[in-house]
Specification:
The longest helix is centred in the C-terminal third of the chain and has 36 residues. It contains seven helices and no strands. It starts with a helix and ends with a helix. The chain has about 180 residues and is an all-alpha fold. About 75% of the residues lie in helices and about 0% in strands. Helix 1 packs across helix 3 and helix 4 packs across helix 7. The protein is elongated.
Length: about 180
Amino acid sequence: MNADEKREFREFVAARSRSLLHTAYLLTGDWEQGRDLLQTALASTARRWPKLRDREQPEIYVRRALYHAQVDRFRLLSWGRETVTDTVPEQPSGQAADWADTVAQRQDIMAALRRLPKRQRAVIVLRYFEDRPDNEIAAILGVAQGTVRSQTHKALASLRTTLAAAEASAASSTAAGRGTIA
């Protein structure tokens, strides 16, 4: 890589790394794993930077590298381990309870996202968290636009089912807890 190409790559990383890190986090469900994933994708991009045909849109290449690196990591490292706890902590009263509800909802959403197959998760992240149109998602993932739409439909149906079950479970445990208080 010559000096101009190094400068271009550094400028690209400085400008887009925050957005790319958020994508990596959503793909992995963990900030540290997301950072590692982004580093892997950027290293891959840096090696190929001089050969990229379209220097105007290197982000598509990096996002595709993120997606493929995540799939490869999942296959190689058997990711997907979950941490199980015996009990859920009690919610504090007042203003803090609202924050606890927000955190619980985020955890439910992240857990539901982690349960999705990798392609469906990537489609949901690109569509709803990055607000990308079907044609860009298809280009990033290397699939047809119809595949993007069908994967979105399947993922949303799965998310709705999972989140409704989590909500029902939370409501029943709250109701059960009320009955034991004197």
